[in-house]
Amino acid sequence: MVAGFYRTCVIDQILPHSPADYVRQPSVPTESPTLGLGHLQFEALITAARLSPNINDFALVAMLGLLGLRIFEACGATIDNLAEEHGHRVLKIRGKGDKTVLIPLPPAVARAIDRAVGSRVHGPILRNAHGVQMDRHAASRRLKALADEAGIRIARMHPHMLRHIFVTTMLDAGVSLRDVQIAARHADPRTTMPYDRARRNLDRHPNYILAAYMASGT
Could you tell me how far CA 178 lies from the centroid of its own chain? Predict the structure, then answer.
């Protein structure tokens, strides 16, 4: 974490070089160990959530997959955390290390949250079947149910898969590693780098490009 801090200072031209350059650090896997969803699977999941009669489902999937929140951040978010900053709707969250950050809300996410909140003015954004704050266990059950509804065949659905797709989608879309690191709130860019699996991304396989090009004749 300290080495990542100094590296960021060098990138931002605050320091000429990192004093941690020659510190031996533990190796980081070259690929993310998390088996994330593919883009098509995520689209199916968010569609199932949007159509679900449970008003919390769309907000849950949007907060995890489109904002990249960790599950404890999404479940802990309250209506009082919603605000406006310089014309942007934002969600104030308390993340790792007890750091408070402002997360801008794209329109689709704002609509999902508004649907979950309804006319309430206080309390948690996400609630369980009993009307109280949703916890990670209830969230995991809802995600599994949505995955089943969407026809997603996956051995074990868990919340971090949506944070994983949040990061990999930005990398696949060509967003710079530095910007993805900031969006994911990774202290060290080496934590972000293993997510970049674009070269083995089946959603971008040339077969699909060829099929789309030849669609008029098939």
Answer: 16
Choice between 212 and 115, residue whose per-residue pLDDT is larger: 115
Active site residue 88: no
Q: Of the residues 142, 163, 164, 185, which is catalytic?
A: 163
Q: How many CB atoms lie within 10 A of CB 18?
A: 18
* CATH code of the domain containing 195: 1.10.443.10
Residue 33 has pLDDT above 80, yes or no: no
Q: Is 195 considered catalytic here?
A: yes
What tens digit of pLDDT does each residue of 129-183 get? 999 999 999 999 999 999 999 998 877 788 888 888 888 877 777 777 777 777 7
| Count of domains for the chain | 2
- What range does the domain containing 18 cover? 1-30
Residue 112 pLDDT level (bands cut at 50, 70, 90): very high
Q: Which two tokens stand for residue 52?
A: 């679900």
